[in-house]
Write a structure and sequence with these properties.
62% of the residues lie in helices and 13% in strands. By secondary structure, the chain is an alpha/beta fold. The chain folds into two domains: 59 residues; 211 residues, ATP synthase, F1 complex, gamma subunit (Pyruvate Kinase, Chain: A, domain 1). It has a five-stranded mixed β-sheet, with helices on both faces. The chain starts with a helix and ends with a helix.
Length: 286
């Protein structure tokens, strides 16, 4: 009887867990479409900015285009989540970022980090120098919220304290697949497939316009990566919570089967004891 009571307690506890994981799955599923729309909405602006940037890249002397062959110090922006329960999403990204850190250090390059998300900050504070960080981003982040992450990297690059800047994030392939990706932000790389036939006329000095344009382009690129990482997070959490709910339901089914077998065995034993007692009473009477 004690064993069946313990099983019943585990069943109730697992049912409560299944209710929580199911609720989290539903929440992530409801957030995913709007997060995906937000990410897609960043594309037209980013594509236009990239087209304009490509027009200047072949002739510009702007430092954002200049490659520094003797790189000694690089920056890495890492996008992670504030909360867990999203499968191996953060772990896979952290592994890729760590490999990047090891590759840079093996090439005698010191790496400094700008980290978004509490999980990333907790992990990388033990592995590298943190230049800046941002926590508690909403599901609908504003570019102003990201400036503490972006500005220190751009300033350090312009002052030649950094020779390259990369960003690590989860690229959204589909609901089931999110790929950890490291992308170079600075120096800007020329896109070979973008045509440069357009001629632009400037009301202000071209370099002033270009400096503003390039910074806006970098900011929009990083913002696009942030929105894509949020999409990946919601998709990963939805799938992880669905798997957790399914596993909890499987455990409940197995425990109910075990519980019913124990109950059946106890009932059978009680019937046998009653029958034996009845037979014994009948024998004594005779």
């Amino acid at each position: 009887m004690a064993k069946s009571h313990k099983i019943k307690q585990v069943i109730k506890s697992t049912e409560k867990t299944a209710v929580i994981t199911k609720a989290m799955q539903v929440v992530s599923a409801s957030k995913l479409p709007s997060a995906l729309d937000r990410f897609k909405s960043t594309k037209p602006y980013a594509d236009l900015a990239q087209h304009i940037m490509a027009h200047y890249s072949h002739a510009s002397e702007h430092p954002f285009f200049q490659k520094r062959s003797d790189a000694k110090k690089t920056g890495l922006i890492i996008l992670s989540s504030d909360r867990g329960l999203c499968g191996s999403l953060n772990l896979q990204l952290f592994k890729k970022a760590l490999h990047h850190l090891q590759d840079q250090e093996s090439s005698q390059q010191h790496v400094v980090l700008s980290v978004s998300g509490r999980k990333g900050l907790q992990f990388f504070s033990k592995h590298a120098d943190i230049l800046s960080s941002v926590e508690s981003l909403s599901d609908k982040p504003k570019i102003q919220q990201l400036m503490p992450l972006i500005t220190p990297m751009l300033d350090a690059y312009e002052e030649k304290e950094l020779d390259r800047v990369y960003i690590a994030y989860n690229q959204f392939e589909n609901t089931l697949t999110q790929t950890p990706t490291i992308r170079q932000i600075l120096p800007l790389q020329e896109e070979p497939n973008v045509k440069k036939t357009t001629t632009y006329h400037h009301e202000q000095e071209a370099n002033t316009i270009l400096d503003m344009l390039l910074k806006n382009y970098i900011e929009s690129t990083i913002y696009s990566c942030v929105t894509e990482n949020i999409v990946s997070e919601q998709a990963a959490r939805m799938i992880a919570m669905k798997n957790a709910t399914d596993n909890a339901n499987d455990i409940i089914a197995d425990l109910n089967l075990t519980y019913n077998k124990i109950r059946q065995a106890l009932i059978t034993q009680e019937i046998a004891e009653i029958s034996a007692g009845a037979n014994q009473s009948t024998g004594e009477t005779l």
